[in-house]
Amino acid sequence: MPDKHYSFFGAVEKSFDKAAKFTKWEKGILEQIKECNAVFQMRFPLKRDDGNIEVIEAYRVQHSHHKAPCKGGIRFAAEVNQDEVMALAALMTYKCAIVNVPFGGGKGGIRINPKKYSPYELEKITRRYTAELIKKNFIGPGTDVPAPDYGTGEREMAWILDTYSAMHPGEIDAAGCVTGKPVTQGGVRGRREATGLGVFFGLREVCNMPDIMKKLGLTTGVEGKRVVVQGLGNVGYHSAKFFQDAGAKIVGLAEYEGAIWSDKGLDVDEVFNHRKKTGSILDFPGANNFEKNGDALEMDCDILIPAALENVINGENAPRVKAKIIGEAANGPLTPDADDVFGKKGTLVVPDMYLNAGGVTVSYFEWLKNLSHVRYGRLEKRFAENLNTHILGQMEELSGKRVKENEREFIMHGPDEVDLVYSGLEETMIAATHEIMNTWKNNPAIPDMRTAAYVVAINKVGTSYAELGIFP
After folding, report:
1. Which of 40, 161, 301, 459 has an alpha carbon within 20 to 30 A of 206's alpha carbon?
2. What's the gap between Cα 350 and its chain centre?
3. Quick check: 423 and 388 in contact, CB under 8 A?
4. The listed CATH number (2.60.40.2340, 3.40.50.720, 3.50.30.10, 3.40.50.10860) that belongs to domain 8-185
5. Considering the entire predicted model, what is its pTM?
6. DSSP string, 345-379
7. What's residue 297's pLDDT?
């Protein structure tokens, strides 16, 4: 296990410093980009269902104000601490910069195990936390916009919106104070699967680069690739599902209760349903159990996707990891020591700070929807369908042939909200992948893809500060 004194924020700073020397910015600007601008630590009482009083510890960190609002999820986890929330807020700044989402980085955390609280207690905690954020101006459509993270979801976001709206009567853009909401409360279709889909789009683009694949000794494309996914939560499930649908083979799956493998491949939905029924992925029919869940990380495969918590691959277990490509779907699943090991082995690490940016990208689309007060596709869907129908009719008349029914439906289809969200996310991830890879190729001294991603992020944030006139 890694050293208990390991600092997640320290690891982010270490990666930052590694990349900073490949940028043109002076020391003072780099210091400003690196540090957290505002850290709000709070404690408040909760009356439990049994009448006992418990003090809840919670945080909200605003890492950068180079663009407004700040943006970042809220996690409910027993491990939450200030160092972790600061690190995740910093990663959000760099993540937003890389994928050209005009937000500063933020993050929130409440130090609880949500499984040990009733829905009513969780609602009280969430609403009180929101009220504390409002008091200190740490939430608002133009100030700081939270989202779901580990341990939270649409339900918690709806509570946040309701609390904010009640305390800001008549604020027309109130729905933009939080993203990841239910669609009925101003959420956007496609948000739930966005992070997993972004992971798929990013890794698919890497797999489509012949020079990178040749260097790794792999064939181009996703089809036939053996994939291991750690974590079957929202991100891990959707990552695995999109890879499976694209023709990859899911050979290993790991959760906190254990891990399973099968060379023939595992059906993600069947494993998911098995876990729902039995409470565990273990003993899935036709699969083998690993002795311990960490063994899945060391399984022979082409692509390993850690999609659970941070710090799961470190200097101790990294030498035993056999994957050629590691796609960081979680935040910070590799320590800097692991990075060093993979650099020497020639393993390609596709970094979290851009690979799991699907969530914030689609959150940005949701925020824009809330500010514009109109659903995506509402204005153009019928126009596009009528135009496509007319074009198709003209082509059939001129050619004297009729298009097959399934193709006909595809051509005539006007974009729904989810189509536009998927399209925007695909464009974002493809563009970001190429920008990072080109930065890496154009400077051979940059040691790895993570450092290249940091270089891209630092240059964009530095340019923002310079153009704002903050630095003469």
Report:
1. 459
2. 13
3. no
4. 3.40.50.10860
5. 0.90
6. HT-EEE-HHHHTTHHHHHHHHHHHHHHHTS-TTTT
7. 84
Residues annotated catalytic, as ranges:
107
What HEC string does 429-468 produce? Answer: HHHHHHHHHHHHHHCCCCCCHHHHHHHHHHHHHHHHHHHH
Which pLDDT score, from 0 to 100, does residue 472 have?
45
* Residues written for the chain: 472
**By three-state DSSP, how is residue 8 classified?**
helix
> CB–CB of 344/32 below 8 Å?
no
**pLDDT value, residue 376:** 84
User: How many angstroms separate the CA atoms of 239 and 256, rounded?
Assistant: 18
Please give the structure tokens belonging to residue 324: 């050629």
Token pair 């009719």 is found at: 393
Residue ranges of the chain with pLDDT lower than 50? 1-2, 472
Give the pLDDT confidence score for residue 81 in this predicted structure: 95
Q: Where are the domains of the chain?
A: 8-185
Q: Which of 416, 443, 424 is nearest to 367 (CA)?
A: 424
- Taking residue 304's Cβ as centre, other Cβ atoms within 10 Å add up to 27
pLDDT at site 469: 65
Residue 239: per-residue pLDDT: 94
Cβ-based neighbours of 303, under 8 Å, separated by 6 or more: 203, 225, 226, 227, 228, 243, 248, 323, 324, 325, 326, 327
